[in-house]
Design brief:
With 406 residues, this protein is of the alpha/beta class. It contains 13 helices and 9 strands. It has a single domain, classed as Alpha-Beta Barrel (TIM Barrel), CATH 3.20.20. Strands 1, 2, 3, 4, 5, 6, 7, 8 and 9 form a 9-stranded parallel β-sheet that branches. The N and C termini lie far apart (50 Å). Helix 3 packs across helix 10, helix 8 runs parallel beside helix 9 and helix 9 packs parallel to helix 10.
Protein backbone atom coordinates (compact mmCIF):
# COMPACT_ATOMS: atom_id res chain seq x y z
CA UNK A 1 0.00 0.00 0.00
CA UNK A 2 1.48 3.38 -0.95
CA UNK A 3 2.44 5.88 1.72
CA UNK A 4 -0.51 7.90 2.97
CA UNK A 5 -3.22 5.49 1.83
CA UNK A 6 -4.03 3.96 5.23
CA UNK A 7 -7.48 4.76 6.61
CA UNK A 8 -8.45 5.38 10.22
CA UNK A 9 -9.58 2.37 12.23
CA UNK A 10 -11.09 2.24 15.70
CA UNK A 11 -10.15 -0.42 18.22
CA UNK A 12 -13.76 -1.63 18.04
CA UNK A 13 -13.28 -2.24 14.31
CA UNK A 14 -10.66 -4.92 14.97
CA UNK A 15 -11.80 -8.53 14.90
CA UNK A 16 -12.72 -9.51 18.44
CA UNK A 17 -10.15 -11.16 20.68
CA UNK A 18 -12.13 -14.39 20.47
CA UNK A 19 -12.02 -14.30 16.68
CA UNK A 20 -8.33 -13.43 16.55
CA UNK A 21 -7.46 -16.10 19.08
CA UNK A 22 -9.61 -18.56 17.18
CA UNK A 23 -7.55 -18.15 14.05
CA UNK A 24 -9.04 -15.09 12.39
CA UNK A 25 -6.37 -12.84 10.92
CA UNK A 26 -6.23 -9.13 10.53
CA UNK A 27 -6.45 -8.25 6.85
CA UNK A 28 -3.53 -6.47 5.23
CA UNK A 29 -5.66 -3.32 4.84
CA UNK A 30 -6.74 -3.31 8.50
CA UNK A 31 -3.15 -3.97 9.56
CA UNK A 32 -2.00 -0.95 7.57
CA UNK A 33 -4.76 1.15 9.12
CA UNK A 34 -3.33 0.56 12.61
CA UNK A 35 -0.82 3.36 11.98
CA UNK A 36 -3.60 5.94 12.33
CA UNK A 37 -4.44 5.35 16.02
CA UNK A 38 -3.94 7.86 18.84
CA UNK A 39 -2.67 7.28 22.40
CA UNK A 40 -5.92 5.84 23.72
CA UNK A 41 -6.09 3.54 20.73
CA UNK A 42 -2.61 2.24 21.55
CA UNK A 43 -3.75 1.22 25.04
CA UNK A 44 -6.46 -0.84 23.39
CA UNK A 45 -3.92 -2.40 21.05
CA UNK A 46 -1.86 -3.55 24.01
CA UNK A 47 -4.92 -5.07 25.67
CA UNK A 48 -5.73 -7.06 22.52
CA UNK A 49 -2.09 -8.07 22.02
CA UNK A 50 -1.67 -9.18 25.63
CA UNK A 51 -4.85 -11.22 25.46
CA UNK A 52 -3.69 -12.92 22.28
CA UNK A 53 -0.37 -13.82 23.89
CA UNK A 54 -2.14 -15.30 26.92
CA UNK A 55 -4.43 -17.34 24.67
CA UNK A 56 -1.65 -18.68 22.49
CA UNK A 57 1.39 -18.88 24.73
CA UNK A 58 0.01 -18.98 28.26
CA UNK A 59 1.65 -17.16 31.12
CA UNK A 60 5.22 -18.26 30.40
CA UNK A 61 7.92 -15.86 29.21
CA UNK A 62 11.10 -17.54 28.02
CA UNK A 63 14.78 -16.75 27.52
CA UNK A 64 17.69 -18.63 25.98
CA UNK A 65 20.81 -19.03 28.20
CA UNK A 66 23.58 -18.45 25.69
CA UNK A 67 27.12 -17.54 24.87
CA UNK A 68 27.76 -14.97 22.16
CA UNK A 69 30.49 -16.10 19.74
CA UNK A 70 31.58 -13.34 17.32
CA UNK A 71 33.27 -15.63 14.82
CA UNK A 72 34.50 -12.65 12.80
CA UNK A 73 33.77 -8.96 12.99
CA UNK A 74 35.01 -8.30 9.48
CA UNK A 75 32.14 -7.41 7.14
CA UNK A 76 31.62 -6.33 3.56
CA UNK A 77 28.75 -4.04 4.62
CA UNK A 78 28.84 -0.57 6.15
CA UNK A 79 25.65 0.17 8.10
CA UNK A 80 25.06 3.65 9.46
CA UNK A 81 24.58 2.50 13.06
CA UNK A 82 26.98 -0.44 13.46
CA UNK A 83 29.95 -0.69 15.81
CA UNK A 84 30.24 -4.48 15.50
CA UNK A 85 32.15 -4.47 12.21
CA UNK A 86 35.90 -4.06 12.12
CA UNK A 87 38.43 -3.78 9.33
CA UNK A 88 41.58 -5.96 9.28
CA UNK A 89 43.59 -2.96 10.51
CA UNK A 90 41.42 -2.76 13.65
CA UNK A 91 41.91 -6.31 14.91
CA UNK A 92 44.65 -8.87 15.39
CA UNK A 93 42.13 -11.74 15.25
CA UNK A 94 40.50 -11.83 11.84
CA UNK A 95 38.54 -14.91 12.91
CA UNK A 96 38.24 -16.83 16.15
CA UNK A 97 40.12 -20.10 16.02
CA UNK A 98 38.61 -23.48 16.79
CA UNK A 99 40.26 -23.46 20.21
CA UNK A 100 38.86 -20.02 20.99
CA UNK A 101 35.36 -21.04 19.93
CA UNK A 102 35.40 -24.20 22.02
CA UNK A 103 36.89 -22.38 25.02
CA UNK A 104 33.90 -20.00 25.11
CA UNK A 105 31.40 -22.79 24.47
CA UNK A 106 32.78 -25.00 27.25
CA UNK A 107 32.87 -22.10 29.69
CA UNK A 108 29.24 -21.40 28.86
CA UNK A 109 28.34 -25.04 29.33
CA UNK A 110 29.75 -24.95 32.86
CA UNK A 111 27.37 -22.05 33.58
CA UNK A 112 24.36 -23.91 32.22
CA UNK A 113 24.18 -22.30 28.79
CA UNK A 114 22.52 -24.24 25.99
CA UNK A 115 22.90 -21.88 23.00
CA UNK A 116 26.01 -20.86 21.08
CA UNK A 117 24.98 -17.77 19.14
CA UNK A 118 27.32 -17.34 16.18
CA UNK A 119 27.14 -13.75 14.95
CA UNK A 120 29.52 -12.56 12.27
CA UNK A 121 30.05 -10.05 9.52
CA UNK A 122 28.62 -10.55 6.07
CA UNK A 123 30.98 -12.33 3.61
CA UNK A 124 34.15 -10.40 4.52
CA UNK A 125 36.28 -12.39 2.07
CA UNK A 126 34.51 -10.54 -0.74
CA UNK A 127 35.94 -7.21 0.46
CA UNK A 128 39.17 -8.06 2.27
CA UNK A 129 41.99 -10.15 0.75
CA UNK A 130 43.25 -10.70 4.31
CA UNK A 131 40.04 -12.59 5.13
CA UNK A 132 40.23 -14.68 1.97
CA UNK A 133 43.88 -15.53 2.70
CA UNK A 134 43.14 -16.48 6.35
CA UNK A 135 40.45 -18.88 5.19
CA UNK A 136 42.44 -20.33 2.30
CA UNK A 137 45.47 -21.15 4.47
CA UNK A 138 43.17 -23.22 6.70
CA UNK A 139 41.42 -24.99 3.83
CA UNK A 140 38.21 -22.97 3.64
CA UNK A 141 36.81 -21.21 0.61
CA UNK A 142 34.31 -18.95 2.37
CA UNK A 143 33.37 -17.65 5.80
CA UNK A 144 30.22 -19.74 5.60
CA UNK A 145 32.30 -22.89 5.11
CA UNK A 146 34.28 -22.04 8.24
CA UNK A 147 31.10 -21.26 10.19
CA UNK A 148 29.66 -24.66 9.30
CA UNK A 149 32.75 -26.39 10.65
CA UNK A 150 32.72 -24.37 13.88
CA UNK A 151 29.05 -25.20 14.40
CA UNK A 152 29.85 -28.86 13.98
CA UNK A 153 32.69 -28.63 16.50
CA UNK A 154 30.41 -27.04 19.12
CA UNK A 155 27.59 -29.49 18.41
CA UNK A 156 29.82 -32.56 18.68
CA UNK A 157 32.17 -31.52 21.49
CA UNK A 158 29.84 -29.66 23.87
CA UNK A 159 26.26 -29.77 25.12
CA UNK A 160 25.52 -26.43 23.43
CA UNK A 161 23.41 -25.99 20.34
CA UNK A 162 24.60 -23.61 17.60
CA UNK A 163 22.36 -20.84 16.30
CA UNK A 164 23.92 -19.29 13.22
CA UNK A 165 23.28 -15.66 12.35
CA UNK A 166 25.68 -14.97 9.47
CA UNK A 167 23.57 -12.72 7.24
CA UNK A 168 22.22 -13.67 3.83
CA UNK A 169 22.54 -17.33 2.86
CA UNK A 170 22.13 -19.48 -0.22
CA UNK A 171 20.32 -22.81 -0.21
CA UNK A 172 23.65 -24.63 -0.07
CA UNK A 173 24.80 -22.57 2.89
CA UNK A 174 21.58 -23.16 4.79
CA UNK A 175 21.78 -26.88 4.08
CA UNK A 176 25.35 -26.95 5.45
CA UNK A 177 24.14 -25.49 8.78
CA UNK A 178 20.96 -27.55 9.03
CA UNK A 179 22.42 -30.73 10.60
CA UNK A 180 23.86 -28.87 13.61
CA UNK A 181 21.68 -25.75 13.95
CA UNK A 182 18.18 -26.41 15.31
CA UNK A 183 17.37 -22.83 14.31
CA UNK A 184 18.98 -20.16 12.17
CA UNK A 185 18.34 -16.43 12.02
CA UNK A 186 18.59 -13.23 10.07
CA UNK A 187 17.10 -9.89 11.00
CA UNK A 188 14.95 -8.53 8.20
CA UNK A 189 15.33 -5.12 9.89
CA UNK A 190 12.99 -3.46 7.38
CA UNK A 191 11.29 -4.04 4.06
CA UNK A 192 11.69 -0.36 3.21
CA UNK A 193 13.71 0.25 0.05
CA UNK A 194 14.15 3.88 1.15
CA UNK A 195 16.66 2.81 3.78
CA UNK A 196 19.26 1.83 1.21
CA UNK A 197 18.83 4.90 -0.96
CA UNK A 198 21.43 7.67 -0.90
CA UNK A 199 21.88 8.91 2.66
CA UNK A 200 20.04 5.97 4.20
CA UNK A 201 21.50 3.68 6.89
CA UNK A 202 21.85 0.80 4.42
CA UNK A 203 23.23 2.75 1.47
CA UNK A 204 26.56 0.91 1.66
CA UNK A 205 25.19 -2.43 2.89
CA UNK A 206 24.23 -4.62 -0.08
CA UNK A 207 23.20 -7.54 2.13
CA UNK A 208 20.54 -5.37 3.80
CA UNK A 209 18.47 -5.18 0.60
CA UNK A 210 15.05 -6.50 1.66
CA UNK A 211 14.67 -8.84 -1.29
CA UNK A 212 17.86 -10.77 -0.51
CA UNK A 213 16.98 -11.04 3.18
CA UNK A 214 13.46 -12.21 2.40
CA UNK A 215 14.90 -14.73 -0.07
CA UNK A 216 17.10 -16.21 2.67
CA UNK A 217 14.02 -16.54 4.88
CA UNK A 218 12.08 -18.13 2.03
CA UNK A 219 14.81 -20.70 1.38
CA UNK A 220 14.83 -21.60 5.07
CA UNK A 221 11.10 -22.20 4.84
CA UNK A 222 11.53 -24.48 1.84
CA UNK A 223 14.12 -26.46 3.80
CA UNK A 224 11.98 -26.67 6.96
CA UNK A 225 14.43 -24.76 9.18
CA UNK A 226 12.92 -23.05 12.26
CA UNK A 227 13.83 -19.43 11.76
CA UNK A 228 14.30 -16.29 13.83
CA UNK A 229 13.89 -12.86 12.28
CA UNK A 230 12.80 -9.40 13.32
CA UNK A 231 12.65 -5.70 12.63
CA UNK A 232 14.81 -2.83 13.85
CA UNK A 233 12.82 0.29 14.66
CA UNK A 234 14.02 3.89 14.80
CA UNK A 235 16.47 3.86 11.86
CA UNK A 236 14.39 6.15 9.66
CA UNK A 237 11.44 3.93 8.77
CA UNK A 238 7.82 4.97 9.23
CA UNK A 239 5.15 3.11 11.21
CA UNK A 240 3.61 2.12 7.92
CA UNK A 241 6.88 0.60 6.76
CA UNK A 242 7.11 -1.38 10.01
CA UNK A 243 3.69 -2.84 9.33
CA UNK A 244 4.73 -3.69 5.76
CA UNK A 245 7.76 -5.52 7.15
CA UNK A 246 5.62 -7.48 9.60
CA UNK A 247 3.22 -8.41 6.81
CA UNK A 248 6.14 -9.70 4.72
CA UNK A 249 7.17 -11.89 7.65
CA UNK A 250 3.60 -13.08 8.13
CA UNK A 251 3.25 -14.06 4.48
CA UNK A 252 6.33 -16.28 4.72
CA UNK A 253 5.10 -17.87 7.94
CA UNK A 254 1.67 -18.53 6.44
CA UNK A 255 3.36 -20.37 3.61
CA UNK A 256 5.94 -22.41 5.52
CA UNK A 257 5.18 -22.23 9.28
CA UNK A 258 8.88 -21.82 10.07
CA UNK A 259 9.06 -18.33 11.62
CA UNK A 260 9.59 -19.42 15.20
CA UNK A 261 10.39 -15.99 16.60
CA UNK A 262 10.13 -12.33 15.66
CA UNK A 263 12.36 -9.80 17.44
CA UNK A 264 11.19 -6.22 17.83
CA UNK A 265 14.46 -4.40 18.44
CA UNK A 266 14.86 -0.73 19.25
CA UNK A 267 17.63 1.35 17.69
CA UNK A 268 20.19 2.81 20.09
CA UNK A 269 22.63 5.40 18.79
CA UNK A 270 26.32 4.65 19.13
CA UNK A 271 29.28 7.00 19.15
CA UNK A 272 31.60 7.12 16.14
CA UNK A 273 28.92 6.05 13.68
CA UNK A 274 27.16 8.10 10.98
CA UNK A 275 23.95 7.86 13.04
CA UNK A 276 25.52 8.88 16.35
CA UNK A 277 23.23 11.92 16.63
CA UNK A 278 20.04 10.08 15.68
CA UNK A 279 17.66 9.83 18.66
CA UNK A 280 17.13 6.40 20.17
CA UNK A 281 13.85 4.71 19.32
CA UNK A 282 11.26 5.98 21.80
CA UNK A 283 9.82 3.48 24.33
CA UNK A 284 6.27 4.30 23.21
CA UNK A 285 7.23 3.48 19.62
CA UNK A 286 8.62 0.15 20.76
CA UNK A 287 5.46 -0.49 22.76
CA UNK A 288 3.21 0.30 19.80
CA UNK A 289 5.24 -1.78 17.35
CA UNK A 290 5.35 -4.77 19.69
CA UNK A 291 1.59 -4.77 20.20
CA UNK A 292 0.98 -4.39 16.47
CA UNK A 293 3.39 -7.25 15.78
CA UNK A 294 1.44 -9.54 18.10
CA UNK A 295 -1.89 -8.59 16.50
CA UNK A 296 -0.56 -9.06 12.96
CA UNK A 297 1.41 -12.26 13.60
CA UNK A 298 -1.15 -13.90 15.86
CA UNK A 299 -1.24 -15.76 19.12
CA UNK A 300 1.30 -18.49 18.46
CA UNK A 301 4.35 -16.76 16.95
CA UNK A 302 6.96 -16.04 19.61
CA UNK A 303 7.68 -12.33 19.97
CA UNK A 304 10.79 -10.97 21.68
CA UNK A 305 11.98 -7.60 22.92
CA UNK A 306 15.66 -7.59 24.04
CA UNK A 307 15.73 -6.68 27.75
CA UNK A 308 19.23 -5.19 27.71
CA UNK A 309 18.18 -2.39 25.34
CA UNK A 310 15.46 -0.88 27.56
CA UNK A 311 15.51 0.39 31.12
CA UNK A 312 11.96 -0.69 32.06
CA UNK A 313 11.87 -3.76 29.85
CA UNK A 314 9.11 -5.47 31.84
CA UNK A 315 6.57 -3.03 30.37
CA UNK A 316 6.69 -4.89 27.06
CA UNK A 317 5.04 -7.92 28.60
CA UNK A 318 1.86 -5.83 28.49
CA UNK A 319 2.36 -5.39 24.73
CA UNK A 320 2.23 -9.13 24.06
CA UNK A 321 5.79 -10.47 24.14
CA UNK A 322 6.52 -13.96 25.41
CA UNK A 323 10.32 -14.05 25.16
CA UNK A 324 13.41 -12.09 26.21
CA UNK A 325 15.79 -13.69 23.72
CA UNK A 326 19.30 -14.81 24.51
CA UNK A 327 20.78 -13.72 27.83
CA UNK A 328 24.36 -14.61 28.70
CA UNK A 329 25.98 -15.12 32.10
CA UNK A 330 29.39 -15.05 30.40
CA UNK A 331 29.72 -12.97 27.22
CA UNK A 332 28.72 -9.42 26.37
CA UNK A 333 26.33 -8.37 23.64
CA UNK A 334 28.94 -7.62 21.00
CA UNK A 335 26.41 -5.83 18.79
CA UNK A 336 25.36 -3.57 21.68
CA UNK A 337 28.42 -3.63 23.97
CA UNK A 338 27.19 -0.63 25.95
CA UNK A 339 24.09 -2.55 27.05
CA UNK A 340 24.78 -5.28 29.67
CA UNK A 341 22.47 -8.25 30.00
CA UNK A 342 20.14 -8.15 33.01
CA UNK A 343 20.98 -10.45 35.88
CA UNK A 344 18.77 -13.52 35.69
CA UNK A 345 17.60 -13.01 39.26
CA UNK A 346 16.37 -9.54 38.27
CA UNK A 347 14.86 -10.79 35.01
CA UNK A 348 13.00 -13.48 36.91
CA UNK A 349 11.76 -11.02 39.54
CA UNK A 350 10.43 -8.51 37.03
CA UNK A 351 8.78 -11.22 34.97
CA UNK A 352 7.18 -12.77 38.04
CA UNK A 353 5.92 -9.43 39.34
CA UNK A 354 4.24 -8.88 35.97
CA UNK A 355 2.37 -12.13 36.57
CA UNK A 356 4.39 -14.49 34.38
CA UNK A 357 6.76 -17.42 34.84
CA UNK A 358 10.28 -17.17 33.45
CA UNK A 359 11.53 -20.39 31.85
CA UNK A 360 14.76 -21.19 29.99
CA UNK A 361 14.45 -22.56 26.46
CA UNK A 362 16.73 -23.90 23.76
CA UNK A 363 17.51 -21.84 20.63
CA UNK A 364 14.60 -23.66 18.99
CA UNK A 365 11.13 -23.47 20.52
CA UNK A 366 9.40 -26.58 21.92
CA UNK A 367 6.70 -26.70 19.25
CA UNK A 368 9.33 -27.66 16.67
CA UNK A 369 10.60 -30.77 18.45
CA UNK A 370 8.71 -31.66 21.66
CA UNK A 371 5.37 -33.29 22.37
CA UNK A 372 5.46 -35.51 19.34
CA UNK A 373 6.11 -32.64 16.94
CA UNK A 374 6.29 -33.78 13.33
CA UNK A 375 8.58 -30.94 12.26
CA UNK A 376 11.32 -32.50 10.08
CA UNK A 377 14.45 -31.90 12.15
CA UNK A 378 17.48 -34.15 11.53
CA UNK A 379 17.27 -37.19 13.88
CA UNK A 380 20.61 -36.62 15.64
CA UNK A 381 19.65 -33.02 16.27
CA UNK A 382 16.23 -33.92 17.64
CA UNK A 383 17.78 -36.52 19.95
CA UNK A 384 20.03 -33.90 21.52
CA UNK A 385 17.14 -31.46 21.91
CA UNK A 386 15.02 -34.01 23.74
CA UNK A 387 17.92 -35.00 25.97
CA UNK A 388 18.40 -31.42 27.16
CA UNK A 389 14.75 -30.69 27.89
CA UNK A 390 11.88 -31.73 30.13
CA UNK A 391 8.49 -33.04 29.03
CA UNK A 392 7.37 -29.50 28.13
CA UNK A 393 10.34 -28.87 25.86
CA UNK A 394 12.04 -26.36 28.17
CA UNK A 395 15.57 -26.68 29.58
CA UNK A 396 15.77 -29.23 32.38
CA UNK A 397 15.95 -27.73 35.85
CA UNK A 398 14.02 -24.60 34.95
CA UNK A 399 14.95 -21.16 36.20
CA UNK A 400 16.26 -22.59 39.51
CA UNK A 401 19.19 -23.95 37.54
CA UNK A 402 20.35 -20.37 36.99
CA UNK A 403 19.08 -17.94 39.60
CA UNK A 404 20.45 -19.91 42.53
CA UNK A 405 23.94 -19.87 41.04
CA UNK A 406 24.07 -16.16 40.14
Amino acid sequence: MPNGSAVHINISDLPSLDRLAGGAELSDDDAMALVEGDGSFEAGLCAVASGLRDRGRGRVVTFSPKVFIPLTRLCRDFCGYCTFRQSPAETDDLYLTTDQVLYVARAGQRLGCTEALFTLGERPEQRYPEAADWLSVRGYRTTHDYLSQMCRAVFEETELLPHGNPGTMSRRELEALQPTNPSIGIMLESSSVRLYESGGPHEFAPSKRPRVRLRTMELAGELGIPFTTGILIGIGETRQERVESLLDIRRLHQRYGHIQEVIIQNFRAKADTPMADTPDAAPDELMWTTAVARIILGERVNIQVPPNLSENYERYIAAGINDWGGVSPLTIDYVNPEAPWPQLTELERRTREAGYELRPRLPVYPEYFAGGSAWPLPPSLKEKLLRLTDESGYVKGGIRRYVHSN
